[in-house]
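Renewal narrative, Specific Aim 1. Our central claim is that a sequence can be written position by position from structural information alone. The example that follows is taken directly from our test logs and has not been curated for this report. It begins with the structure tokens describing the chain, in the order in which they were read.
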């Protein structure tokens, strides 16, 4: 059977249905092409946006890494300074402790000398009293 035989034996309804099927298939193809174009455009827009975000992400990542490195170096500097200050403070505390002990020993010696001197003065007073009493008698 050829196409002419099909049309010769076909009724107008069959031809109309065939045309509707062909037109609907063409409409589907047209819609698919438009959809494909829109999808391609959206993919392109998405790709461009993603690339911009990648660039910004990379720049931000570099800045964050630089900031972290800077912070690490600052922390290590502060740590080394704190260690030297701790050592210095320990030495200062030891020196103050030794000085306080020396002052305490010196104060005790002065206290002992004053006590001994007070005893001698008391002995002298007693001697002077006795001498004064002896002189009166």
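The sequence written for that structure reads:
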């Amino acid at each position: 059977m050829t196409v002419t035989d099909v049309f010769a034996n076909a009724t107008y309804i069959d031809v109309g249905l065939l045309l509707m099927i062909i037109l609907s298939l063409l409409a589907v193809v047209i819609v698919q092409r438009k959809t494909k174009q829109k999808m391609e455009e959206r993919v392109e827009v998405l790709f461009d946006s993603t690339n911009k975000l990648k660039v910004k992400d990379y720049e931000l990542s570099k800045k964050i890494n630089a900031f972290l490195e800077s912070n690490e170096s600052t922390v290590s500097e502060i740590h080394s300074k704190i260690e030297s200050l701790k050592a210095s403070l320990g030495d200062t505390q030891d020196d103050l402790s030794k000085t306080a002990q020396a002052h305490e020993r010196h104060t005790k010696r002065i206290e002992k000398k004053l006590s001994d001197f007070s005893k001698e003065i008391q002995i002298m007073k007693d001697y002077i009293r006795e001498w004064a009493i002896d002189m009166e008698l």
